Amino acid sequence: MEQTIEPTLQRNYPMRLATSLGVGGPADYFFRPRSAADIQWALRFAEERQLPLTTIGYGTNLLVRDGGIAGLVIQLADSFAAASVHGSTITATCGCLYGSVSKLAAYHSLSGLEYAVGIPGGLGGALFMNAGAYDGEIGPLVREVHWVTAHDSGVWHTPEYTYSYRFSRLQEANVIVTKTVLQLQPGDQRTIYAKMNDLQERRRCRQPLEYPSAGSTFKRPEGHFVGSLIEQANLKGYSIGGAQISEKHCGFIINRGGATAGDVLQLIDHIQQVIADQFGVELQPEIRIIGRQRLR
Ligand SMILES: Cc1cc2nc3c(=O)[nH]c(=O)nc-3n(C[C@H](O)[C@H](O)[C@H](O)COP(=O)(O)OP(=O)(O)OC[C@H]3O[C@@H](n4cnc5c(N)ncnc54)[C@H](O)[C@@H]3O)c2cc1C
Questions:
Q1: What is the β-pairing status of strands 62-64 and 83-86?
Q2: Architecture of 6-78 per CATH?
Q3: Architecture of the domain spanning 209-290
Q4: How many angstroms does the Cα of residue 131 sit away from the middle of ligand 1?
Q5: Which residue from 21, 24, 38, 128 puts its CA 20 to 30 A from 264's CA?
Q6: 102, 168, 213, 216: which is the annotated catalytic residue?
């Protein structure tokens, strides 16, 4: 059957609409695939035109610069989301929401993904970032990771998907993840739901979920908590333009309205400088900063 996807390729797509922080300039081309074949079509489209390529999920861990993104952005999100349960494994495409897969597991009395219930974003981003919370992370659950490039495809099995804190092999591989198989454990459904409700409540109390953000701005430095360091430095509520250090949780930068990526970047720089000066701690961004500095 003939491919009919070309018309859905969009030009100059505002990346602020594709990211939870709500900032960032336009992508030259923007594409939402519905299948692995669509992805390979888009990869070849980029290759033939020598366009740089960026893969994103729901943009909940991204800061896109104000100059936007050169080339093609492929977004694996709700148009590429399907999941099924087989015994105690879940097979899911990477556009599935991490939190929804956690709820699917609970529905089938499968334990292991409770920690993920409130983490926004999709499975692709979760695998890329080895996303986790409350002593859980996706890495130990991975049984298979399916990937594609323009001319190849393959599967990594458990030992081949290497990971550590907010790091996975995907950060060094030039592939798009399409699907994963996660290994869970049979559990008691009431206990699973109770744990999920508790973790959700902790998030609601502690995180500024009422404002756009990209989650924790910095990785946790060994022996410290980022939020406490920033609070001790009297930076709570400090803002530059529309970007503000959350008063509810200093580890988050929020968009109070009208923030630019430039505001957020300046705020990140300022925090890094102050924390380095006052405590000798080098904060490393957890959020992925991508895109070009300025529009051409
Ligand atoms: C309020 C809030 C709370 C958060 N809490 C947590 C938390 O508790 N723990 C945590 O770990 N994170 C947390 N995050 C960050 C974020 O939700 C996770 O990192 C999430 O897993 C990212 O998924 P995403 O689909 O949004 O990925 P994106 O932000 O779109 O992308 C993240 C990275 O993954 C890459 N990527 C995405 N999909 C693919 C793919 N299919 N193939 C190859 N590469 C891909 C992108 O290139 C990018 O570098 C939070 C964010 C917010 C806004």
A1: unpaired
A2: 2-Layer Sandwich (3.30)
A3: Alpha-Beta Complex (3.90)
A4: 7
A5: 128
A6: 216
